[in-house]
Design a protein that fits this description.
It is built from 13 helices and 11 strands. The protein has helices spanning 2-24, 45-56, 68-71, 77-83, 115-123, 127-136, 175-183, 196-202, 213-219, 245-250, 253-288, 299-319, 321-354; strands at 27-33, 61-66, 88-91, 140-147, 154-156, 170-172, 187-189, 207-208, 227-229, 238-244, 293-295. The strands form 2 sheets. A 6-stranded mixed β-sheet has the order 7-6-8-5-9-11, with helices on one face. It has a 5-stranded mixed β-sheet with strand order 2-1-3-10-4. Helix 2 (45-56) runs antiparallel to helix 11 (253-288), helix 7 (175-183) crosses helix 12 and helix 9 (213-219) crosses helix 11 (253-288). The protein binds calcium ion.
Length: 356
């Protein structure tokens, strides 16, 4: 009993020493999302982060999340985090393409890495180090924020059989993929999400890409465009946590560790939630609209896309040394990682298909 009492007092002593470190620091942050609060699973990530950080700090580190419906500036998250109006944000790196083209690599690029390959590059290769370099000039940190996996190539009202079918085709497809398609004669347009369904229905556009079954099903495109093409342009779109550098550096090492751990937990969670939503939505779509045809672009078109994409990437690399550095790092890492993906995942899928 005497011994037990001694243990308790030693433990109590440790707690007295340890607890004030966390208890003393009260931190109140705000996090702005690019997404409206209803746009799950993307909009699930920041609230989950906030909950985890709150629980791990006994409520002392509070992160208040604001959806786009409140702050009304979904495309200005980088500026708002840089300026300190929000200590952090949840968004996607390729939205900052107009400010710095090199930011595209931290979301996804056409014919690029799969999610597994990209996270390996980010966490264990040079990816995160390069991301810090690119975002350092904005006075912010950027961390992985969860992945949509392979996005679908989009909904087409007509089948695309030859390169001629792309000429003059009106399509909503943003980013680098839009630049690639424009080189092949596609009339690339940008339309607000709220007007996409009507545009496709009325023929203002002939085709559009959005995300994957889980998010596409809510938009209803499958009801009016039966050709669902396989992706080539966003094979692993990673979302992004932006954190104001000065605010992050001011946190205690304990809170920094908690925030980083929670971010990484949310990355895994969003990636799995997205896979769940996609599988569930695809099963429903297939059942309700059995006429949907999943297509892969013909060889001739894929080869032309790849060639146009290489030209786009090399043109940026020629004029921007930092772009070149990140492009080369990703390409070199992918070459190695892809060999492994092919002997493992690709072969496993082939193997199981043989016994289906
Ligand atoms: Ca997309």
């Amino acid at each position: 009993m005497k011994h037990f009492g001694k243990v308790v007092s030693v433990l109590a002593g440790c707690m007295l020493l340890a607890s004030p470190v966390l208890a003393a620091e009260k931190v109140r942050w705000k996090c702005a999302m690019t997404w409206p609060s209803t746009l799950t699973p993307l909009a699930s990530a920041a609230p989950k982060l906030s909950k985890m950080v709150g629980e791990m700090t006994g409520g002392n580190f509070e992160i208040k999340v604001e959806g786009a419906e409140k702050h009304k500036a979904p495309q200005e998250i980088l500026d708002m985090v840089k300026g300190g109006q929000f200590e952090m944000g949840h968004t996607a790196s390729y939205y900052w393409k107009g400010k710095d083209i090199t930011t595209v690599f931290f979301t996804s690029v056409p014919f690029g890495m799969t999610a597994d390959e990209q996270y390996a590059w980010l966490y264990y290769g040079d990816g995160q180090k390069l991301q810090e370099k690119v975002y350092g000039k904005f006075g912010v940190y950027s961390f992985p924020g969860g992945n949509t996996g392979v996005q679908m190539g989009g909904w087409f009202r007509k089948e695309i059989k030859t390169l001629d079918d792309l000429k003059g085709l009106k399509m909503r497809i943003p980013g680098l993929a839009g630049e690639v398609f424009a080189k092949l004669g596609v009339n690339v347009t940008n339309i607000a999400p709220g007007e996409l369904y009507t545009s496709l229905e009325r023929g203002t556009v002939d085709a559009l890409e959005w995300v994957g079954p889980g998010m596409d099903i809510k938009m209803g495109f499958h009801k009016i465009a039966p050709f669902y093409y396989a992706g080539w342009h966003e094979p692993a779109s990673d979302m992004q946590f932006l954190v104001n550098k000065a605010q992050m550096d001011k946190l205690s090492p304990e809170y920094q560790a908690i925030l980083k751990t929670a971010m990484q937990a949310v990355v895994a969670d969003l990636t799995y939630e997205n896979t769940h939503e996609n599988s569930t939505a695809w099963a429903q779509m297939k059942q309700e609209f059995p006429n949907i045809k999943v297509m892969i672009f013909p060889d001739e078109i894929l080869k032309a896309m790849k060639k146009a994409n290489d030209e786009v990437m090399q043109a940026y690399a020629a004029q921007n040394p930092e772009f070149k550095e990140v492009y080369e790092s990703q390409q070199a890492y992918m070459k190695k990682a892809r060999e492994y993906s092919r002997i493992s995942t690709e072969n496993y899928l082939k193997t199981t298909k043989m016994v289906e």
